[in-house]
């Protein structure tokens, strides 16, 4: 008996030790993940420098180009960690995609967009933010672009760590502006362009939010609140998917295929109209087959929006890769051209190896660091399901089209997150409206206490305020960091020369 008790105590001790060992293994694996990400990122940055050294050739400016390639790789990693979350977050939050599936789709389509349809030309000094003639020498221009690239990357890195999705394009713009001010004073900045960018802080999220809210209102009124939801879905889901197909056709024609072909706005609209009608007709029998046997409840409707949501996420990633990656690697391309030719007043062509650094960097950054922002955009601002996430994705495409028609500058990041806010605030408004109507119908219903109403808000105010603050200070913060970096570089390089 005593031996049995002793054996039992030994087994319990062994179980406790094994549990401790298992917990230690899990803690070690959790702690090692950030270290692994940093290690892979450092290797990628070093490889980018080696590629630049090999392809650029050994000249007097080789070291500068190698350093710039490292900065460009660092910036691309941060784009993958931050910006891509806006395209994939809604689909993951709605459980239409797993995290692994989202990362795989985004890596493929972001890279394809960057390599196949990426911006073939970026106008001088990041789209006319500063005047070329204000730069006295090619060396000062190169220092300014180095400062802009590093400051933008540092700011996006900080925003990702805080958990705020910010515009990488605005970060680059702020970096270029700050370096230009440090190099040539405030007169060097193209202030009308900066005013337009400042206006986009308001225009992008508001327009994206309104359009997303309108589509959610339409879906609720035409499908969700109907007695026979499935019959209503058979009619309207093909129409909505057709609208999405047409909108994305116009979006890609205007923003994603500039390198392959030039398409004016009216032609893009005609293409979108034709393809939208075709997709609508094709989807009628598809949705009818999908709807067979579905129960007449809201949960059944999610199945009908799943595939369109995945497709929209992939198309958004392709367009983002084509449009925004070129902006991010633009300063690197400008440094390469100025280092090779000594000139910096002409339009800047982006070499293939520079675009490759941008495309691969985005994929690595997304894989290593992207899940944090994807979860935040997809589920921590407001709860998303396939219908709500579909409205966010559709609003992103339509907002870009409307903005192009009106000639307004917009940020894809601000549009997507604004769409999430729009969906969340519409849900709050709709919930309060329905509760008031219920109280009018049932007078004896007890109104909820104020504290309970505040707790039941459907948009997390802390995330809302953090993100808005990050948007507002992106350009001035990146500009300030860039000015400091430019002064350090110029003092060191000037002293060295």
Automatic annotation (TrEMBL):
One of its GO terms (biological process) is phosphate ion transmembrane transport. It comes from the Bacteria. GO terms for cellular component: membrane. Keywords: Membrane, Phosphate transport, Transmembrane, Transmembrane helix, Transport. The chain crosses the membrane at residues 35-56, 62-80, 92-109, 140-160, 172-191, 197-219, 231-253, 265-283, 304-322, 350-369, 389-406, 412-429, 464-489. It is a multi-pass membrane protein. InterPro entries: Phos_transporter. It is found in: Membrane. GO terms for molecular function: phosphate transmembrane transporter activity. Belongs to the inorganic phosphate transporter (PiT) (TC 2.A.20) family. This is Phosphate transporter. Pfam families: PHO4.
């Amino acid at each position: 008996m005593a031996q049995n008790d002793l054996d039992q105590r030994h087994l319990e001790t062994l179980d406790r030790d094994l549990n401790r060992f298992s917990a230690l293994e899990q803690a070690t694996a959790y702690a090692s993940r950030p270290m692994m990400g940093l290690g892979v990122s450092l290797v990628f940055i070093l490889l980018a420098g080696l590629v630049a050294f090999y392809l650029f050739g050994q000249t007097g400016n080789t070291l500068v180009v190698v350093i710039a390639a490292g900065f460009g790789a660092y910036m691309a990693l941060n784009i993958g960690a931050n910006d891509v979350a806006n395209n994939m977050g809604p689909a993951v939050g709605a459980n239409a995609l797993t995290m692994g599936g989202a990362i795989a789709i985004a890596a493929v389509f972001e890279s394809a967009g960057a390599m196949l349809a990426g911006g073939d030309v970026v106008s001088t000094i990041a789209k006319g933010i500063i005047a070329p003639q204000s730069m006295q020498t090619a060396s000062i221009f190169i220092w300014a672009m180095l400062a802009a690239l590093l400051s933008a990357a540092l700011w996006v890195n900080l925003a990702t760590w805080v958990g705020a999705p910010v515009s990488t394009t605005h970060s680059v713009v702020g970096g270029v502006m700050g370096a230009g001010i440090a190099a040539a004073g405030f007169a060097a900045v193209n202030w009308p362009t900066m005013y337009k960018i400042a206006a986009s802080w308001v225009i992008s999220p508001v327009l994206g939010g309104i359009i997303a809210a309108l589509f959610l209102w339409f879906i609720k009124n035409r499908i969700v609140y109907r007695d026979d939801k499935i019959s209503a879905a058979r009619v309207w889901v093909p129409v909505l998917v057709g609208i999405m197909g047409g909108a994305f056709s116009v979006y890609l024609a205007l923003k994603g295929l500039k390198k392959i072909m030039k398409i004016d706005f009216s032609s893009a609209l005609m293409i979108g109209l034709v393809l939208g009608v075709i997709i609508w007709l094709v989807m009628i029998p598809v949705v009818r087959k999908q709807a067979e046997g579905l129960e007449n409840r809201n949960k059944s409707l999610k199945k009908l929006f799943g595939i369109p949501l995945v497709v929209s996420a992939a198309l958004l990633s392709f367009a983002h890769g084509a449009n925004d990656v070129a902006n991010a690697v633009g300063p690197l391309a400008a440094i390469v051209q100025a280092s090779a030719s000594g000139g910096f007043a002409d339009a800047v062509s982006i070499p293939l190896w520079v675009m490759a650094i941008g495309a691969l960097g985005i994929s690595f950054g997304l894989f290593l660091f992207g899940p944090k922002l994807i979860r935040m955009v997809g589920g921590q601002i407001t709860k998303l399901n396939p219908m709500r996430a579909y409205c966010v994705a559709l609003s992103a495409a339509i907002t870009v089209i409307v903005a192009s028609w009106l000639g307004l500058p917009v940020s894809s990041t601000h549009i997507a997150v604004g769409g999430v806010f729009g969906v969340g605030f519409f849900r709050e408004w709709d919930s309060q409206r329905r509760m008031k109507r219920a109280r009018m119908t049932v007078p004896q219903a007890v109104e909820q206490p104020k504290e309970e109403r505040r707790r039941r808000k459907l948009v997390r105010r802390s995330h809302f305020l953090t993100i808005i603050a990050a948007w507002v200070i992106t350009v001035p913060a990146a500009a300030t960091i860039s000015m400091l970096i430019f002064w350090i570089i110029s003092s060191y390089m000037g002293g060295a020369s």
